[in-house]
Amino acid sequence: MTIPIEGETIQIHSYKHNGRIHRVWQETMVLKGTKNIFIGANERTLVTESDGRTWLTREPSICYFHAEHWFNIICMLREDGVYYYCNVSSPYVFDNNAIKYIDYDLDIKVFPDMSYTLLDEDEYEQHKKDMGYPEVIDKILKRNVNKLESWIKQKRGPFAPDFIEVWTNRYLFNKEMQSKEK
Q1: What average pLDDT does the segment 94-116 reach?
Q2: Whole-prediction pTM value?
Q3: 123 labeled part of a ligand binding site
Q4: Is 13 part of a structural domain of the chain?
């Protein structure tokens, strides 16, 4: 497997279990790429939905993906604090200059005070039936919801106090280096 290189720009592709594209983020800067971890950042990037609609992200975000965990975490940097949007998903793969994963509907929204809410349970149940999620996938996903909740409570991974500062500084450094190269 190829590994994304720090400073380069890649896309993020979200799919559904049936193999159809769900959403594409046009530009994300690589901050860290290893065989297991991808950390990227984007700001005001174009997002294309499966029906062709487009929109721009509103704030800078740090994106965390892991090749062994069934979730990814988007850290949105807003004026009143960091909000986290956690997608329960397949582990990512890096292919054809894009991070790719299957979105399994369930999401956890985490607020700056670290309170959180599980979202889209109805959508998950509907898609589970419509797309025939196997029982083994259902169990893996529910275990990973529990793992995410544990990470939030323990302030682990992207929820750790210094995570945002470290990766925001790396993002600003890379942006500065790119602007000097132009």
Answers
A1: 97
A2: 0.96
A3: yes
A4: yes
Provide the pLDDT for residue 1: 61
Residue 23 in any domain: the answer is: yes
Check the annotation: does 135 bind a ligand: no
Q: What is the pLDDT of residues 118-176, one digit of tens each?
A: 999 999 999 999 999 999 999 999 999 999 999 999 999 999 989 999 999 999 999 88
Residue 54 has pLDDT above 70, yes or no: yes
Q: Which residues are catalytic?
A: 23
Number of domains in the chain: 1
For residue 6, say whether it is annotated as part of any ligand binding site. Answer: no
Can you give the CATH number for the domain in which 149 is found?
2.40.380.10
- On whether 120 is known to bind a ligand per the annotation, the reply is yes
How many angstroms separate the CA atoms of 28 and 63, rounded?
Answer: 9
| Within-domain flag for 2 | no
Q: Is 107 annotated as belonging to a binding site?
A: yes
Domain membership of residue 136 (yes or no) is yes
For residue 63, what pLDDT is reported?
Answer: 98
Structural domain span for residue 151: 8-175
